[in-house]
Structure formats: C-alpha cells, structure tokens
Amino acid sequence: MSAGTGPFLAACRREPVPHTPVWFMRQAGRALPEYRRLRGSGSILQAIADPELSAEITLQPVRRYGVDAAILFSDIVVPVWATGFGVEIVPGRGPVVEHPIRSPADLRRLRPLEPEGDTGFVLETVRLVARELAPEVALIGFAGAPFTVASYLVEGGPSRDFARVKTLMHSDPTTWHELVERLAQMAIDSLSAQVAAGVDAVQLFDSWAGSLSPADYERFALPATRRVLDAVRALGVPTVLFGVGTGELLGLMSSAGPDVMGIDWRVPLDVARERVGPRRAVQGNLDPAVCLAPFEVVADETRAVLARAGTAAGHVFNLGHGVLPETDPGILGAVVELVHAEGRAGVRP
Ligand code: CP3
Questions:
Q1: Which residue among 78, 94, 103, 268 is least enclosed by CB atoms within 10 Å?
Q2: 198 torsion bin: left (phi>0), alpha (psi -120 to 50), beta (else)
C-alpha cells in the first residue's frame, strides 16, 4: 500500500512530522551480516534478478535499524544491463562495460527499455516489498541520472578524472546529447513502472555530477536530468536528486526541480538550505566515515547535523554518501534512535 502519510514523505513535502525521518544510502549491503549470509558469493546482478531474494535484502535494514524508508535493492546499471548492453558489476570496483560507447555508431547498441519484459523482476520486487512494509515506512525507487550512467558506459568502468566522458561531450556534443536523451528515456520508463508497481518516492542518483564544472553541468547534464524529474513529478511522487561533491552545483541541480536535494558531507545543511532555496527539502549529511568512530563521536556529529538542519520543515536525515562496508550496524541503529529523539526540523511540538 502507498505510505502516503509517513514521516519520510511528509518531510519530502516540507510538512510537519512526528519525528525527523532517517534512512541510509546503501543501507542494504555489506555492513549487514544477514546480507552477507544471504548474498553468498554470486553476482549482485543475479541477486537483483531474484525478486524473493531482493525483497528480503530490501527489508533487512528496515527490521534491523527501524529506518523510515526502504530503498529498493537494485542498481543504477540494471536497465542497461537488462536490455542486453554488456555490463558487469565487479566486487570492490563497480560497473564495468565490455564495449564502451565512443562513437555515434555505438549508440545503436542501446535500445529502449521495456520495463515489464526486461525488468519484470525489479517490478516484482517492488510489489513484494510494498506488501510487507508498514504503511508509515516509504519505499524508495531509483534510477541513475543520465550523466552518471553515461559516465560508466563511456569510460567503461569507474573513473577518477572522467576524461573520456568529457572528451565525448566536448568533441561530439550531438552524440553526447543523443546518448543522455536515450538514458533519460530509459530512466523515465523504469521509474514510471516502479511507481506503478508501488514505490512511494524516487531518488535520482547523479553520483558523479560533482566532477563537472557548473557550466558543463548546465549544458551537458541538467537538461536530461530535468526531463526525468519533470516526468516523475507528473506521476505524483516526491523526487530526490543526489550527487557527491556537488557543493558548487546545488543551485543548478535544484533548478532541475527535485522536491528534495541530497547533500553530501562537504556542505553544512544550513548553507545547503540557502543554496537550494526555501521550496526544497534537504537530505543528509553525516560523513559515512564518521560512523567508523566510537559512538560518542558519531553522536556529537549527528547532533551537529541536526543543529544545522534547524527547525524549518523539510529535513530527511541520511549519510552524505553510502554506508561503508566496515560500518558497525549497531552504530547505525543508535543513530536512528538519536535522530528520532532529537531531530527538530518540522517536528510537531
Ligand atoms: O541500500 C541500497 O542502497 C542498495 C541498493 C543500491 C545498490 N546500488 C546495490 C549495490 C543502490 C541504491 C545502488 C546505486 C548505485 N550503484 C549508485 C548510486 C549510489 C552511489 O553510491 O553513489 C552507483 C554509483 C552504483 C554503481 C555501483 N554498483 C558501484 C559504484 C558499486 C560498488 C562496487 C563495490 O563492490 O564496492 C556497485 C555494487 C553494488 N550495488 C553493491 C550494492 C549493495 C555492492 C556489491 C555487492 O554487495 O555485491
């Protein structure tokens, strides 16, 4: 059922909340012993293709931590993978592409997504999870933003300098725009199907957007991202836009129209609120590495995030990026309790 009333969705809409909602990016993953047990040593893409397994993995952190939202267990490369574009996820490294896109002719290998036929397993996972979740716990669907997915397809794998993707956008802007338009359409088709299957909100991961200058972000990434967010907003669910190292881009990213801006740990939330303006909620932004410290330190840093978030409505507590695999799950559980007890943004007195 739709969790139209829970604290996560209320905070996304900048409405009053009974407590500050919290979830963690990468909450379903290697930090959890019950995840490592279930996952075994098979490929993560095989696990994602198994709805019963993926639904269980999605629910594990909800049970363990008492978070206010579940995030679908899938990956940003699943739509391209499911359409037969050769991609693998290498443990400890990330997505690796067999034949990267480097020329206009390579675009022909990227066909449109047929959500039910290609990714029926993802939609089945959504249905299974939606059935199990308490009504006040939201289910977040997601997609990779066109720039970030394109970066894997063009670089062939994770990158430090994004030299090849920047070479393509600057030397052949026509091919670049065609590529991101196709990826935008894939994201729209995937997210529309996820919403129809029962997700309550959508996060668009533009994880690597922070590698772009503001001018390049505006020209080469923003238009396709805006198109995705416009299409999802029309479906009536809140949207979150997130990237890492995006301090200088927060104003531009906000202009793409998300309801919530994801903030990494480099920008204090009060500063972030100024940059994104009063009409957007913020999500973040405890440094994931801080969670490796003793709990007194984590508690101080959590309180510092809550203080910066202030009392105005519209704060979803999260980390500034994904949970690190070596994190003690007990620490994250204690962070959830602390945020629920002490968060003040939009909290009814
Ligand atoms: O709780 C959750 O967030 C789980 C669902 C999820 C996964 N990937 C599963 C996963 C989500 C939301 C993603 C998104 C994703 N995938 C992003 C955006 C978020 C971000 O971190 O910025 C990106 C950039 C990817 C691409 C990707 N997939 C990377 C960089 C990696 C890490 C490689 C590694 O092993 O460290 C993956 C693999 C991956 N996707 C894992 C998980 C749980 C870890 C591998 C495993 O458990 O086998």
A1: 103
A2: left
| pLDDT per position as a tens digit, 30-66 | 899 999 999 878 889 999 999 999 999 999 999 999 9
Query: Does 322 sit in the ligand 1 pocket, CB within 6 Å?
Result: yes
Rounded alpha-carbon distances, angstroms, from residue 277 to 14, 31, 179, 270, 274: 12, 35, 31, 11, 5
Per residue in 193-250, pLDDT (tens digit) is: 999 999 999 999 999 999 999 999 999 999 999 999 999 999 999 999 999 999 999 9
Distance of CA 88 from the midpoint of ligand 1 (Å): 12
Reply yes or no on whether 35 is catalytic.
no
pTM over 0.90: yes
Per annotation, catalytic residue among 14, 35, 64, 75: 75
SS3 label, residue 207: coil
13 Cα to the center of ligand 1, angstroms? 27
| Catalytic entry in 68, 152, 227, 280 | 152
